[in-house]
Amino acid sequence: MIDLTQYEFWFLTGSQDLYGDETLRQVAEDSKKMVESMNKAGLPCKLIWKPTLLTPDSIHKTLEEANADDKCAGVICWMHTFSPAKMWIAGLNAYKKPLLQLNTQFNVKIPYSTMDMDFMNLNQSAHGDREFGYITARMDIRRKVIVGHWESKNTLSRIGSWMRCACAVADGKKLIVARFGDNMREVAVTDGDKVGAMMQFGWSVPYYGIGDLVAYMDKVSASDIDDLMAVYEKEYTIVWGNDKDFTREHIREQAKIEIALRRFLKDINANALCTNFQDLWGMKQLPGLAIQRLLADGYGFGAEGDWKTSAMVRTVKVMTAGLVGNGKGNAFMEDYTYNLEDDNGLNLGSHMLEVDPQVSVTKPKIEVHPLGIGGKEDPARLVFTATKGEALVTAVVNMAGRFRCVVNEINVIDPPEEFPKLPVARMLWKPYPNLSTSAEAWILAGGGHHTAFSNIVTSEMMRDWAEMTGIECVVIDKNTNIPQFRNELRWNEAYWANRR
Question: Cα separations (Å) of 252 from 76, 226, 256?
């Protein structure tokens, strides 16, 4: 569903017209070779070479064209020689998309025995990029800086991760989160400033009555449900229980919901949604299995009207397009309960129904059980345990007049015992640096109980995304301690207050 090849990135090479035609021909030839090589290396999106930028007018024109091109998700700037930075001011003032400064050079090593002044004049990235860095710092331009040779695997990996974040920003500019019903009554953290979010990220969160979905459900045919039931039986293990007809009837209801949801979301061009178990007029069940399968196909989701988490789940899915599989993926997640033994602090993450099967370590089971909330019939859901390994959970919260991204690095572990009476998808993790510090820091930062989980996305990627969108980001990791974290929040508040 998510295709990153719809986006491209422009590679802009800076120089000036004082070097003469021969040097500038070499500059263009070098930058073309770099772009061709990096494209062959397997970046997630194609790099587009642009002619060397030599004047203020050419810089301004190129950056304005990048703004206007829907395929262009960002630009990578490299100063091959010396590009006087005042030439870039007008263009940078106009530019509105993610920017990466690649501090590299064409050659790997210093050619000690052969170096002459011609070589020196041609290879001036070491101070050309610092001139460019000065003006972006002076102008307070949001940007990423990567230092390393353009053929280095580490450099290419970091460029690729940055590209993925920029694609998520581009996706967010046109993201529609279908909001069925409103926020769960009296809940604070899942509510928020939808107008502010649209201004900041581009997220549109239109309201739809649950009756709009029910109208689509009424048009789903029995044959369509039969076809989807065949898919369910092939892809999952169905736990039929003592009453097979009862189980089949309840699974078929989820199939009807899934078919209707897919058609509805396609018609309104939405790639994310949120529901609310307090608003289920005309429905027999709260969507469960239906949501889980939508999540596996790249949609974002948030429960209880949590449109921000829905958008964040979609965001990490765009970042990881093409990388999921074998337990690697993303999921809607919620902190449920702790293990508070000394020196063995653990967090059990789960949700009533809607955890993404991308992260399952085994073939998921379809089970039908009472929900115990919402007052509707027993919904079908996928039950599984998540794969173990390093991961993170992240949430965007609405502070006073702005947004904050909170990230916690975690390590998902195998549960020491089975969960024979817990009929939901779940994962057990050790949060870094430990449960008490991570939970205290999360609460101090105002992080919500819903999160986007990923065992692919890194904290660096989340910082990059926050930088691109212009919001605060705080990371809770192995090095976190509470006094320093409190100070970070206070310093950040002072910084962001001055930017409102």
Answer: 50, 8, 6
Q: Provide the token pair at 86.
A: 């005042």
pLDDT in tens, 88-110: 999 999 999 999 999 999 999 99
Q: What are the residues facing 363 on neighbouring strands?
A: none
Phi/psi for 312 (5° steps) reads: -70, -40
Scored b (16 or more CB within 10 A) or e, 288-303 reads: bbbbbbbbbebbbbbb
Which residues make Cβ contacts (< 8 Å) with residue 270, sequence separation at least 6?
Answer: 176, 177, 178
DSSP 8-state class, residue 183: S
DSSP reduced 3-state for 96: coil
Q: Which two tokens stand for residue 180?
A: 């069925």
Q: Is the pTM of this model over 0.90?
A: yes
DSSP code of 359?
Answer: G
Phi, psi (rounded to 5 degrees) for 308: -65, -45
295 φ, ψ (degrees, to nearest 5): -60, -45
SS3 388: coil
**In the 8-state DSSP scheme, what is residue 331?**
E
Which tokens go with 234? Answer: 């092939």
pLDDT tens by residue, 208-253: 999 999 999 999 999 999 999 999 999 999 999 899 999 999 999 9
Are 323 and 305 a contacting pair, CB within 8 Å?
A: no
- How far apart (Å, rounded) are the C-alpha atoms in residues 378 and 393? 29
Residue 397 structure tokens? 């919260």
Measure the CA–CA gap between 23 and 25, rounded to whole angstroms: 5
Residue 416 per-residue DSSP state: S
Dihedrals φ, ψ of 12, to 5°? Answer: -110, 125
Containing 31, the helix (H) or strand (E) segment is helix 21-40
Question: Which runs of consecutive H residues, i.e. helices, occur in 123-209?
Answer: 125-138, 153-173, 194-200
What are the helix and strand counts (H, E) for the chain? 15, 19
